[in-house]
Amino acid sequence: MPMAIETTNLTRCFGAVTAVAGLNLTVRSGEIFGFLGPNGAGKTTTIRMLCGLLLPSGGTARVAGLDVARDVEAIKRIVGYMPQHFSLYGDLTVEENLDFFAGVYRLSGQERRRRVTETLARVGLAERRRDLTEHLSGGLKQRLALGCALVHSPTILFLDEPTAGADPPSRQRIWDLLYGAAAEGRTILVTTHYVEEAERCQTIGFMHRGCFIGSGSPEQCKAEMAEELLEVDARPVMQAATVARKLEGVTGVSIYGHTLRVFAKTATHLRHHLQETLGAQGISVKSIRAVSPTLEDVFMSLTRGVPDGEGRR
Amino acid sequence: MLGIVGHVARKEIRQILRDRRSLALILVMPIVLTFLFGKALETGELRNIPSVILNQDSSPESNVIVTAFSTYDEVQIQGEVKTTEEAQELLAQGKVKAAIIIPQGFMQKIEAGEDAQLSLLLDGTDNNSAPIVEGVAQQVIQRYNAERAIRGLWARGVRPDRGRRLIQPVFVQTEIRYNPGLRYLGYVMPGVIGLTLQLLTVMLMAVSITREREKGTLDQIMVTPIRRSELILGKLTPYLGVSLLNVVTILFVADRWFNVPVRERLPLLLGLCVLFVLTSLATGLLISAVSRSQFQAIQIAVFYVLPVFMLSGAYAPIEAIPETIRPVSYLFPLMYFCRAVRAVTLRGAGFFLVWRDLAVLSGFSLVLLYWAVLSFKKRVA
């Protein structure tokens, strides 16, 4: 299968700060690839390099087989970009914005009008076409921005947190649009820091401090988590967490409501030990059971394994 | 190419027209500025310098002198004082700029054939007024001396006309070509026009692109396959149109309120204005290429416009600038614009007298535009 995006040792520095540190990324054609990672992990910088806004400081990157350092203008014709912050013209109407971007992508006449009308219908803004963009709600603005990134029918879409700050129904609308675009054969690279959104992607890459600390399909990532997980229902929960953290073999503890999620190299050994120790401290344990990890658990587990300033493949 | 330029320009015009408040400002500001600058500089000549007389002699001869002073427009005698201290006090308070003192025994000394004196007490803080009052005093005394001499000769039998020729054998005959009234307004008006045009166009253009950078819309354009020349020309064209509108209103104001002879050489003046506006727009583009925010762009624009005003001969001839820094003046398009417009409006010069300035302005606009396109990077290195 051809690769839509391929980077080798992609690096970008801003002065002394290394935002992207030797990233190796492969995205297959037609897949939805989720870029997951905390703020400042280098997701936006990577996307800005891939769509030709930033020059890489090192390494290579190919988008649709074209080199980002050399063939950037050819790349621009076939990619669409939706930046993190809303960046359309607030003083133009919905339709004028779409028409403007269709025009700078060199669509003209009949073709341009057809695409604009199509896109308006697609993102569900046909009735608001004559409204000034600055009067739209956040969710609608995001849909319009997605429309502007789609209006020239790109083969690859770069979306930088397309659902940031959106309510669940708006988020659902956007994801429906993304699935629609993917169904047409477009490759989508989407960043998010919502873990539950990453579940919707076919492949995810966990980014931390400028490089990947893990990647694969969501199922794969969960199956390959280096640690095992116990869910402990105990009261009082804070005290239980303090005790659990000190226990040998425990690598991490997160609290969810009344339950603890306890990470350990091997859970079977720990289970008994944990129950006893908690009981001895006068903490009532309702249940302890081994559970399969969520992506969030995987993410927590991965970031814990990374020493400061250095990544892992 | 042209299709995209037009497309960008249409979007820009739409935005300009939609921002009613800015539009009103853009259209009204040049009229107000030209009018204000013009009015402020209209009476560039100093007149009515407040002065007092201290006549300690009170003789017929001293009265002649006092009367002579009052015939000059340059000084305005606000009254008489009684003591030197009083005169000094008024000078110290800044209420008068000059005190004309005729000391006691003035007439006696003249009659006795001794050296008589007229004293001036001048406020040197105002370096413009002081020499003017001094000049007036010199003229008053010269005329007084001459008349006295003629009268003296007549008493000895020399007829006044012969006496005058004996005392003043040589005359200066002056013929002023161009700007016959020696109006400062005539000199400064081209500077006012250029300055107003420049202020507006540099600011508008610089802000127009940095606003897009600030709002992030520039990024959204940069990821498209648009060429930078297309983007820049598309942004430039509407502002060129706006500036031409301003040229028309400014020239109208100059013609109607300040009697600048605009109509006789209208095509040539318009040509000069268009070329000059292009250089200003390109300067604005360059400023926007190096500014991160609108605020920065305005800052840089102000730092550009001010020295240009001081150094380009807009309000005073560049010959008044010391030779060490005068070469800097030649870097500013405004200098060539002022020179050429002055030639056209004051001397009625035609194309063949100002073609050099036209050529320099064309060169400036081409180089600056090209430079602006080059410095406009689509990608951050």
Summarize the structure in words.
The complex is a heterodimer of chains A (313) and B (381). Chain A has helices spanning 43-50, 72-78, 94-104, 109-122, 138-150, 168-183, 195-198, 218-223, 237-246, 267-280, 295-304, and strands spanning 3-14, 17-28, 32-36, 58-63, 66-67, 79-82, 156-160, 187-192, 203-208, 211-216, 228-235, 250-256, 259-264, 284-290. Chain A is α/β, with parallel strands linked by helices and 313 residues long. Chain A folds into 2 domains: 3-222, P-loop containing nucleotide triphosphate hydrolases (Rossmann fold, 3-Layer(aba) Sandwich); 226-292, MTH889-like domain (Alpha-Beta Plaits, 2-Layer Sandwich). In chain A, the strands form 3 sheets. Chain A has a 6-stranded mixed beta sheet, sandwiched between helices. In chain A, strands 2-1-4-5 form a 4-stranded antiparallel beta sheet, with helices on one face. Chain A is elongated, with a radius of gyration of 23 Å. Chain B is of the alpha/beta class and 381 residues long. Chain B folds into 2 domains: 2-43 and 181-375, no CATH class; 49-167, abc type-2 transporter like fold, CATH 3.40.1710. In chain B, strands 2-1-3-4 form a 4-stranded mixed beta sheet, sandwiched between helices. In chain B, strand 1, helix 3 (60-70) and strand 2 (75-81) form a beta-alpha-beta unit. In chain B, 36% of the residues are buried. The model of chain B has no long low-confidence stretch (mean pLDDT 89). The interface between A and B is medium-sized, with 29 and 24 residues.
Q: Which word captures the global form of chain B? A: elongated
Low-confidence region ranges of chain B: none
Distance between the termini of chain B: 26 Å
Overall body shape of chain A: elongated
Number of helices of chain A: 11
Q: How do the strands of the widest beta sheet of chain B line up side by side? A: 2-1-3-4
Give me the number of helical elements of chain B.
15
Tell me the radius of gyration of chain B.
Answer: 29 Å
Strand content of chain B: 5-15%
Average pLDDT of chain B, rounded to a whole number, is: 89
Number of domains of chain B: 2
